[in-house]
Amino acid sequence: MDLLELISYPFMQRALLAGIMLAALLAALGIFVTVRKMAFFGDGIAHSTLAGLAIAILAGLSPLPVALVWATGVALLIWWLERKTRLSSDTLIGILFTASMALGVVLMSFSHGYQPELVTFLFGSILAIRTVDLIYILVVGAAILIWLTLSFRQLTYMSLSHDQAAVSGVPVTRQTILLYAALAMATVLGVKILGIILVSALMVIPPATSRLLTKTFRGHIVWSILLAEIIVAIGLAVSFAFDLPSGATIILVGTALFFLTAILKPLRK
User: How does pLDDT run across 187-213, given as a tens digit for each residue?
Assistant: First the structure.
């Protein structure tokens, strides 16, 4: 099967569009995740969506919008508790995501029979993305990317020096709330292609690899997004060609690219 024939299939077109959007979205947000040392945040939010999925399944609702609302609520609760307690962000994330997962497990015990939506969210299936899912991904993803573009300077300043950004007039509180909400929503959207277990990896691997390739922050941004697109495209092609799980294949391709870059960089020097 040649490339043109492969792209002619509607399910592959949906997968490519979703992959292009989510690669750019997760890589762009991943820059701030790595700079602010919030890698655990994406992992915690991804796992916390299990409760939202269980609620949607029991109520007979569409899982994706319910999961988006639930994850955003958990992210904002983490931000609020950070301000009201002396506990670290990692501690709060650990408490809330385990509690949310436990709630999801309890709620799912009331549901009988096979749940294909739950399996999709747990392990990811970019080839099974429906048109309605694609619409959510494109609309929400575009909104987040527009906000990122407009707020990029402020977010960068906040990430490098929180106190100086506040003194300089940056609306730190508002932008932090928006960043937490954007991370939560992007994570939930990414779950559709990578699954709850693997989604945070696409936030971390491209920015980490790009750090090995460039010394400028602008180059860091460009390479992060470019590498994410390459990783998703190659992973998608390999998974389809060899009938492998798409999410796991994408992450393995990204990991291989990271180690290849780490090995070749010293050799170049």
Answer: 988 887 787 778 888 889 999 999 888
Answer whether 120's CB lies under 8 Å from 67's CB: no
Paired tokens of 40: 């655990």
**Paired tokens of 267:** 């050799």
Helical (H) or strand (E) element with 136: helix 131-150
Q: What is the per-residue pLDDT across 47-104, written as a single tens digit (0 to 9) for each?
A: 888 899 889 888 888 888 898 999 999 999 999 998 888 888 888 888 998 999 899 8
DSSP labels for 197-256?
Answer: TTHHHHHHHHHHHHHTT-SSHHHHHHHHHHHHHHHHHHHHHHHHHTT--HHHHHHHHHHH
Domain boundaries, the chain: 3-196
CATH number for 3-196 (one of 3.40.47.40, 1.10.3470.10, 3.90.550.10, 1.20.1110.10): it is 1.10.3470.10
Residue with tokens 């960089």: 265
**What contacts 24+ positions apart, CB below 8 Å, involve 152-156?**
155/32, 155/179, 156/217
Kindly report the pTM of this predicted structure.
0.85
3-state secondary structure of 52: helix
Nearest Cα to Cα of residue 78 among 94, 99, 92, 91? 92
Do 40 and 92 meet the contact criterion of CB atoms below 8 Å apart? no
